[in-house]
Amino acid sequence: MGWLRQTTDSSIGGKLIVAVTGLAMVGFVVAHLSGNLLVFGGPQAVNSYAEGLRKLGALLWVARIGLLVMATLHIVFAIKLNLANRAARPQAYAVKTYRRASFASRSMLLTGMALLGYILFHLAHFTFRATSPELAALGEYEVYQMIVLSFQQPLIAGLYIVSMLLLGLHLSHGVSSLFQTLGFNHPKYRSLVGSIGPILGVLLALGFSSIPAAVLFGLLK
Questions:
Q1: 55-101 tens-digit pLDDT
Q2: What is the secondary structure of 57-126 as a DSSP string?
Q3: Which domains does the chain have, with CATH numbers?
Q4: Position 103 confidence tier, pLDDT thresholds 50, 70, 90
Q5: CA-CA distance, 221 to 202, in Å (whole number)?
Q6: Given pLDDT bands bounded at 50, 70 and 90, which one contains residue 9?
Q7: What end-to-end distance do the CA atoms of the chain give, in Å?
Q8: Closest among 32, 111, 97, 40 to 67, alpha carbons compared
Q9: Residues whose CB falls within 8 Å of the CB of residue 47, separated by 6 or more in sequence, listed in order
Q10: How confident is the model at residue 200, as a pLDDT?
Q11: Are 53 and 34 in contact (CB under 8 A)?
Q12: Span 118-147, pLDDT tens digits
């Protein structure tokens, strides 16, 4: 197992772990949005989707545990790399880099930790229904009603929208960066790779935010 420790202790190995786990979570986020957008098809569409997921049984828990492991590795190694970079970087070089780096790249750790806090709240609110008595009283598959009741509260809707904007900001740099880490950094494709993150970040932020916005404006009720 020495090779494993050597890999995880190296900067290259750490970046690879962050990239692979990040790519897996991006795939989950895209799939999650595609399911959530079924809410615009009405109660039966999104409720049937939720029931289908529940019927996966043990497979659903395997997926959840796998996602949890991916998220943990991503966070741990992202923090580790950030601390290593801060320790190795002279102050003068840090100032120069700060001026050239984008806001999205400079705020990756901050937006990542904010998203972690949101995920914990999201799980407590929608998955375990521990934050609102009215949600706990709903049936297991009444997802449409759960969404409407939640986002009729401006505070909850606002928190969700702000969190999705932070997600978009995080992905705008993170997605392009992970592709570069995985070797897609040929000059011929550099412009394309650099545009994938911002485009995907905007689309996901708008897609997720459209749901609470539609509830707030009375389009979903």
A1: 898 998 899 899 999 999 999 999 999 888 888 765 555 555 455 56
A2: THHHHHHHHHHHHHHHHHHHHHHHHHHHHHHHS-HHHHHHHHHHS-HHHHTHHHHHHHHHHHHHHHIIII
A3: 2-216 (1.20.1300.10)
A4: confident
A5: 26
A6: confident
A7: 55
A8: 32
A9: 141, 142, 143, 144
A10: 96
A11: no
A12: 999 999 998 888 888 888 888 877 999 999
What's 219's DSSP letter?
S
Asked whether the beta carbons of 207 and 33 are under 8 A apart, the reply is: yes
C-alpha span between 56 and 6 (Å, rounded): 38
Whole-number average pLDDT of the chain: 88
How does DSSP classify residue 184? -
**Residue where the block lists tokens 């190995």:** 13
Q: What's the CA gap between 169 and 106, in Å, rounded? A: 11
DSSP 130-156: -S-HHHHTS-TT-HHHHHHHHHTSHHH
Provide the residue type at 84 as one letter: A
Look at the pTM and tell me if it is higher than 0.85. Answer: yes
- C-alpha 200: how far from its chain's center? 12
- CA atoms of 167 and 113, how far apart (whole Å): 11
Q: Among 173, 177, 182, which residue's Cα sits nearest to residue 202?
A: 173
